[in-house]
DNA sequence: ACACTAATTATAACAATTATAAAGTGATAA
DNA sequence: TTATCACTTTATAATTGTTATAATTAGTGT
């Protein structure tokens, strides 16, 4: 399952002429196996055992490369760090305001919203983002005691 | 019109026990009259004629205060600065990827999405955010030449 | 083997924001 | 009035996430 994703991702890199370095392989693999939408720093820390000399810039550089070829999506929030999501199928995110947990949420794309926005504003729409915020079951429990 | 907004906002501050200082008055007034969803720095620069000694921290502090009492909404994007929006009625934003222009977009709240998310994930949903990205008419023109 | 390009590393720089401490301001009440 | 006390502002330092730079290393094609 994840192996297929990795293989496909490596193929995509090859096709687009992006060199597959050990660091890139490891970052991709970690991203695919990670269910937690990690930050650049989390990736950096997770791989420092395997690559003691890897620079944090390498992580950022390669995440940018992956984003540019469409393998990875960058989730940006206000102050906090960006989180990175390996692209599989289109989905939205539900985010816990208590603990920061991010849960994937499948929902049909909001094409109608884009169409109306285009009509009303005259913009040529390229995409939209949506996130849903709330409290996860665990945090809701804690609130009640 | 805007005068009413300002008056109501000042009333809200009084009710919640937030002191109305000259700086706060000016920041609020500027936000209400501004149609451009300014950044903290833009507010700071716009008011430095009137308040040559005002600290940038004052702008940030007071924007936080306004946010906490619900007068102002903070629009956070990835890398760039937050933008601040005086709260009037619920609306979304359409953002030009070319020039950064932000246009207000009225659309009924996506209650159904929140309900489904709640049902599927077990979260207690508090709110959602959505933005629509694209190219404004002016930038679209420029692209074509 | 050689030259060329891309990738990595280490480090410095940057920009937005927040923390801190000192000084100022204003409301309240003795 | 004046003493007090909490809040606010200011000036500045610190922090954090990210990007830029320059030098080194590694990989690829000829």
From TrEMBL, chains A, B:
UniProt-annotated location(s): Cytoplasm
InterPro entries: FUR, Fur_C, WH-like_DNA-bd_sf, WH_DNA-bd_sf
CDD domains named in the record: Fur_like
Keywords: Cytoplasm, DNA-binding, Iron, Manganese, Metal-binding, Repressor, Transcription, Transcription regulation, Zinc
Principal place of residence: cytoplasm
Pfam family of the protein (one): FUR
Residues where Zn(2+) binds: 96, 99, 136, 139
GO biological process terms, semicolon-separated: negative regulation of DNA-templated transcription; regulation of secondary metabolite biosynthetic process
A GO cellular component annotation in the UniProt record: cytoplasm
An annotated Gene Ontology molecular function: zinc ion binding
Residues the entry annotates as binding Fe cation: 128
Cofactor: binding details: Binds 1 zinc ion per subunit.
Cytoplasm listed as a keyword: yes
Cofactor annotation: Zn(2+); Mn(2+); Fe(2+)
Protein family per UniProt: Belongs to the Fur family.
Entry protein name: Fur family peroxide stress response transcriptional regulator
Organism: Bacillus benzoevorans
